[in-house]
Amino acid sequence: MSSLSAVAKAMVAPGKGILAADESTGTANKRFAPLNIPQNEEMRRKYREMLFTTPGFGDHISGVILYDETIRQNDSRGKPLVQVIAAAGALPGIKVDTGTVPLALGGPDEKITEGLDGLAKRVDEYVKLGAKFTKWRAVIAIDEGIPTHRCIHANASALARYAAICQAGGLVPIVEPEVLMDGEHSKHSLVRSFEVHEWTLKHVFEELSNADVRFEEMVLKPSMVIPGQKSGQKAGAREIADATVTVLMRWVPAAVAGIAFLSGGQGNEEATLNLNEINRVARERKAPWPLTFSYGRALQQPAIGAWRGDDANVKAAQAALAQRAKMNGLAALGEYSPELEKQPALVRA
Ligand code: 13P
Fold first, then answer.
1. Does residue 221 carry a catalytic annotation?
2. Measuring CA to CA, which residue among 37, 17, 32 is closest to residue 296?
3. Interior CA angle at 267 toward 141 and 235, to 5°?
4. Quick check: 59 pLDDT over 90?
5. pLDDT tens across 109-142, in order?
6. Any catalytic annotation for residue 176?
7. Mean pLDDT estimate for the chain
8. Residue 346 pLDDT greater than 70, yes or no
9. Where are the domains of the chain?
10. Which helix or strand (DSSP H or E) is residue 24 part of?
11. pTM of the prediction?
């Protein structure tokens, strides 16, 4: 087995998933603002240190996606945060896209992700800083008349170029084509979400294959097939799991090392319940890959809410993160039940 496929396998190890802590400075500040947490580099550093030093961090977290600012920071004693993560038994990774801009000649609100220029050089630097994997997020929105073919094609092709460059540079790419689930469009039904996922995944894997990306050395980070959150439509966990596993089994090659979902604005426990149901359906249908989490908001929300920037709240915030990591670790095995949320031992600070 190549070293990259060993890393990819470790990222989706049984009962473990990925913590997405790669919010750009702007997004991190947006999360801090409503909690009156000062929006500066030191507070972002403290917050991330608090997350990564959670007791038992590596029990259910296989890897952490960092932002460029964080991969260069040290803990309060001067030890690089990358080493703090490794000492906790998790793999450090890095977001390498530079964000989205409006897609030229695309439909209204369509975006393309940038960051290919100079990427090989940045990959070399991140390898030296200790990164083992990378992430690139493409965004596909659903609305009247969109997505367009141009948007899906342009994003799939950028994802493939990114993945090839990372593998050539020695890092495992997380390929993230996110079909947004926060659309307001009344026609953003489960069926429409399924169609757009199908269209997107088909093109992403066609482009990855054209670029000779090695599937064993990558992790797919998809969205779940869910009706638009403001569409007025609701679907149960079983329906979501059925649709999600169907579309993945149709378009994702069995050689892919694993699948790690984004949470995309789902409620914390909703994201856990859906992942659990997906694993149950996947087991029934003998899906070929491990299916786990790579959550940002659904792992961090309770922790940041408990922390509020106050050192006195560190233990409670870490307990909140440990709780979500443990629950999602169980969901990655299909062994979660909402009853487990109430076990007092898990929420003690
Ligand atoms: P969410 O789980 O909050 O959607 O974030 C995951 C992520 O990394 C998005 O790129």
1. yes
2. 17
3. 65
4. yes
5. 899 999 999 999 999 999 999 999 999 999 999 9
6. yes
7. 96
8. no
9. 3-342
10. none
11. 0.96
Which is the catalytic residue, given 198, 221, 277, 326? 221
91 token code pair = 């793999």
CATH C-level class of 3-342: alpha beta
Q: Residue written as tokens 């998790």?
A: 90
Enter the tokens of residue 127: 């390898």
Bridge partner residues of 292 (DSSP): 260
8-11 long-range Cβ contacts below 8 angstroms, 24+ apart = 8/133, 8/172, 8/216, 8/217, 8/218, 8/219, 8/257, 8/258, 9/257, 9/258, 10/62, 10/63, 10/91, 11/62, 11/63, 11/91, 11/93, 11/133, 11/172, 11/174, 11/219, 11/257, 11/258, 11/260
d(CA 25, CA 153): 29
Of 81, 75, 77, 72, the residue nearest 19 (C-alpha) = 81
Which atom from ligand 1 is nearest to the alpha carbon of 295?
2
CA of 264 to the centre of ligand 1 (A): 6
DSSP 8-class letter at 140:
E
- Choose, from 49, 110, 176, 198, the residue flagged as catalytic: 176
Tens digits of per-residue pLDDT, 81-97? 999 999 999 999 999 99
